Amino acid sequence: MADSFYVGVDLGGTNIKAGVLDADAKVLCSLSVPTEVPKGRDAVVANIVVSAQQAIAQAGVNRAKVAGIGIGSPGPLSHRKGLVINPGNLPCLKDVPLRQIVTERTGIQSTLENDANAAAFGEYWAGAGKGVSDLVMFTLGTGVGGGVIVAGRLLRGFFENGAELGHIVVQPGGRKCSCGQLGCVEAYSSAYFLARVAEEMIRAGEASSLKARVAAGEMLMAEHIVEAAKAGDALAMKVWDQACYYLGVAIVNMQHVTNPERVVLAGGLIAAGDYLLDRVRKYAKQISWTLLDDLPEIRIAALGNDAGFIGAAGCAWEADRTGDW
Length: 325
Ligand SMILES: [Zn+2]
Known about the structure:
Layout (H helix, E strand, L loop, with lengths): L4 E7 L3 E8 L4 E8 L6 H19 L6 E8 L3 E2 L4 E2 L13 H9 L3 E5 H12 L8 E6 L3 E7 L2 E2 L31 H4 L1 H13 L7 H5 L6 H9 L3 H22 L6 E5 L7 H14 L9 E4 L6 H16 L3
Parallel strand pairs: 1-4, 4-7, 8-11, 11-12
Antiparallel strand pairs: 1-2, 2-3, 5-6, 8-9, 9-10
């Protein structure tokens, strides 16, 4: 509702970020508390509740006007059941009915959403997707994550595993991904795999300015590849170009599925800025069909690490609007 407030909680393996927003997506306050995973389930759950309570106190808003708490958690989880299923970096939360617990302990209606979906909703509600009704976000971090908004609603799918955009196959029979599939976009365009591709090529004897790092046993990082590519290293340029190309393939695939108005790129790799954007735009344009002029606009995300808690609050705002908690 127009004069209501919404709490967003972004549950991470190290810290829990929380904040309070108004119905216009304006951030009133934000804070961070340690997750304290080693202390186990009860401590982590208590910290989640505390982060929400502290945020409400810090915002100084009338508690009766707080219409919802949105919790963004690592998946897999069930939004419908409000249940965390088995998050890799938070094993102590296995099978915890988090929505119900937070609702009971705070007395405020809560909703549970996959953190990648919540971040995409944040960009849609308050960031690079503001004003757009159909959006696709690719988060280019250690892995490739994402979220899809169709007509203003998050796409979750029947099994509630939507939208795992990192596992769109862009090269059948290609590189093995962390998920076990072959040729996922994550296996080429994530920060982790981008560096692995370069390392493998160097180990196989290809020339590169990064050779000394690999020979010294140093683990290559995505920023090393970007830096070397910008400096004209042929191997780094090839690897970077390939990452941008496959991301372009994935974007064109999404163009033909949900037909978004805008595609937002988020995550660590966006530090490359136009060096990323220009190439991804070029390849997407090159690959896309010529029948219609409906290639989405591709932009860099606007909210950085705040997308998680802002989007979680947005999910509560959305639940309040639709009744789908
Ligand atoms: Zn995969």
